């Protein structure tokens, strides 16, 4: 709870009020700065980051001189950090091949739709020959200037993975929010997110980790999502539960765990309830500053494969919402853990090598162990379906319902009515006209049903 520590009248012109919650540094020393909200006499508010010692009474006069009447301390300005290990065991690129990006690139090489992926990281060496033709203007929020040059290696490596996974019309926006040591304040990361959204990015890649939940960072993420900008996040490299980290515990974003060449989960990868998909993250060869290349591993390397594929999904169809992109990503996976979702691989290891080649509807009917429900035609575009059961079930998680078109899974809304032994299935937006769909109903440890229907012209 915020408590009023100090109030001082200076002459009679204005007052300074500090609202100061508990912001003492933890034993891990997560930050030496705090995020404050300042309000001037006209009621205009501004968010900024200041050093902890500047909220002490001795600094009140300095703040007063800036003509700001009220300063409210909102939260610590937490520090996020990258985590990676360099290895010399890999001299060939294998991640893009495993994810299957070559197929997508060959299909959409002639598309002229430009998609921007913002890399919020340590900056990017935009002069690197592998990257320079893919870069657009970015910003450095560490030094507060327009030169986001990478003074580490991490951001350049991330950008190289995205470049390798995409066609030339996918552009990379370098945003430097982490310093030469791979550490960055939430305030700078949040500014980077706002910058990316405002400058036209469709996807934001954030390959860093931190333990503390940050309302300030969560609000910036919400700004991206509310503007239909997909946020892709690395799960972290502590062999721990994502519930203990942020933004890896954020379920509104796409969280990526890392796998090795044997399709095993990487020994360092965080896992947990927020994992959406997995991607290669061990011995990933990519660009680093100074016209060089290096093999690194980390969930940091897995996330940009997902960002790259997401960009190509938009190249294919720029009208897709972030919910639709996420559905497509989760459709094109190799399920390596428990059936369907699990906390290790999420929906599975990303694999778009058959993107658009094989009909998901045909594949479902070519599988075994299902019952065929009657087909329907001339279906209204806002049609809902009611699934009736012959007995009461107490947990709707025992029933999995999915909806497919030829190429990807469609988002749906499930409304369980357990007492009346039914589940209502609704599309999150209207179906397309004259289009074939497949409804799949899977009962845990029981029957599987398929129902084909086609919408009206």
Could you provide a short overview of the structure?
20% of the residues lie in helices and 31% in strands. The protein is an alpha/beta fold and 457 residues long.
Which features characterize this protein?
457 residues; alpha/beta; Rossmann fold; 3 domains; seven-stranded parallel sheet; 28 strands; 31% strand; disordered N terminus
Written overview of the protein:
Residues 1-29 and 58-65 have low confidence and may be disordered. The longest helix has 18 residues, at 299-316. The strands form 7 sheets. A 7-stranded parallel sheet has the order 9-10-8-12-13-14-15, with helices on both faces. It has helices at residues 60-64, 95-99, 101-108, 154-165, 186-198, 215-226, 299-316, 322-331, 360-366, and strands at 4-10, 14-19, 33-39, 45-51, 70-76, 79-81, 85-87, 115-121, 139-140, 170-176, 183-185, 203-206, 230-234, 254-259, 275-280, 284-288, 292-297, 333-334, 349-350, 371-372, 376-379, 385-388, 399-404, 409-410, 412-417, 422-427, 436-443, 448-455. By secondary structure, it is an alpha/beta fold. It is globular and about 70 Å long. It has 3 domains: 4-77, no CATH class; 80-350, Peptidase S8/S53 domain (Rossmann fold, 3-Layer(aba) Sandwich); 360-455, Immunoglobulin-like (Sandwich), CATH 2.60.40. Helix content is 20%, strand content 31%.
Query: How much strand?
Result: 25-35%
Quickly give the CATH architecture of the largest domain. Answer: 3-Layer(aba) Sandwich
Question: Over the alpha carbons, how many angstroms does the gyration radius reach?
Answer: 25 Å
- For the record, the CATH class of the largest domain is Alpha Beta
N→C terminal distance:
59 Å
Low-confidence parts lasting 5 or more residues at pLDDT below 50?
1-29, 58-65
The number of distinct structural domains comes to 3
- CATH-assigned fold name of the largest domain: Rossmann fold
Tell me about the largest β-sheet.
7 strands, parallel
Structural class: alpha/beta
Determine the mean pLDDT.
87
Estimate percent helicity.
Answer: 10-25%
Strand arrangement, major sheet: 9-10-8-12-13-14-15
Total beta strand runs: 28
- The number of distinct helices, counting runs of at least 4 residues, comes to 9
Full CATH superfamily name of the largest domain: Peptidase S8/S53 domain
Q: Quick one: overall form?
A: globular
């Amino acid at each position: 709870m915020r408590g009023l520590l100090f109030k001082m009248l200076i002459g009679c012109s204005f007052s300074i009020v500090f609202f100061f919650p508990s912001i003492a540094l933890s034993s891990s020393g997560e930050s030496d700065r705090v995020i404050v909200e300042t309000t001037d006499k006209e009621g205009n508010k501004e968010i900024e980051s200041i050093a902890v010692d500047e909220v002490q009474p001795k600094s009140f006069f300095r703040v007063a001189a800036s003509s700001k009447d009220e300063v409210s301390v909102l939260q610590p300005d937490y520090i996020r950090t990258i985590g990676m290990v360099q290895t010399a065991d890999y001299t060939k690129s294998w991640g893009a091949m495993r994810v299957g990006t070559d197929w997508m690139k060959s299909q959409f090489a002639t598309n002229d739709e430009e998609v921007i992926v913002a890399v919020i990281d340590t900056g990017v060496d935009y002069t690197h020959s592998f990257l320079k033709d893919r870069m657009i203007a970015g910003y450095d929020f560490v030094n507060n200037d327009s030169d986001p040059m990478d003074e580490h290696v991490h951001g350049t490596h991330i950008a190289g993975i995205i470049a390798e996974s995409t066609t030339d019309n996918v552009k990379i926006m370098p945003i430097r929010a982490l310093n030469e040591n791979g550490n960055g304040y939430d305030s700078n990361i949040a500014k980077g997110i706002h910058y990316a959204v405002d400058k036209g990015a469709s996807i934001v890649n954030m390959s860093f980790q931190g333990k503390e939940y940050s309302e300030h960072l969560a609000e910036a993420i919400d700004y991206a999502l509310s503007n239909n900008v997909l946020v892709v996040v690395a799960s972290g490299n502590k062999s721990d539960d994502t519930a203990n980290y942020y933004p890896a515990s954020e379920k509104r974003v796409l969280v990526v765990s890392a796998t090795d060449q044997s399709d095993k989960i990487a020994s360092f990868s965080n896992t947990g309830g927020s994992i959406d998909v997995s991607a290669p993250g061990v011995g990933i060869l990519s660009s680093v500053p100074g016209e060089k290349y290096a093999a690194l591993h980390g969930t940091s390397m897995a996330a940009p494969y997902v960002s790259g594929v997401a960009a190509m999904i938009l190249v294919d169809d720029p009208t897709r919402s972030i919910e639709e992109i996420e559905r497509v990503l989760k459709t094109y996976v190799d399920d390596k853990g428990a059936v369907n979702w699990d906390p290790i691989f999420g929906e599975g290891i990303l694999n778009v090598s058959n993107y658009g080649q094989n009909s998901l509807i045909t594949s479902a009917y070519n599988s075994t162990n299902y019952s065929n429900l009657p087909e329907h035609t001339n279906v209204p575009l806002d049609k809902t379906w009611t699934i009736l059961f012959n007995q009461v079930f107490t947990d709707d998680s025992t029933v999995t319902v999915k909806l497919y078109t030829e190429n990807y899974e469609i988002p749906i809304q499930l409304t369980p009515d357990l007492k009346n032994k039914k589940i209502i299935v609704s599309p999150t937006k209207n179906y397309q006209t004259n289009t074939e769909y497949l409804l799949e109903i899977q009962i845990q440890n029981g029957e599987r049903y398929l129902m084909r229907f086609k919408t009206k012209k």
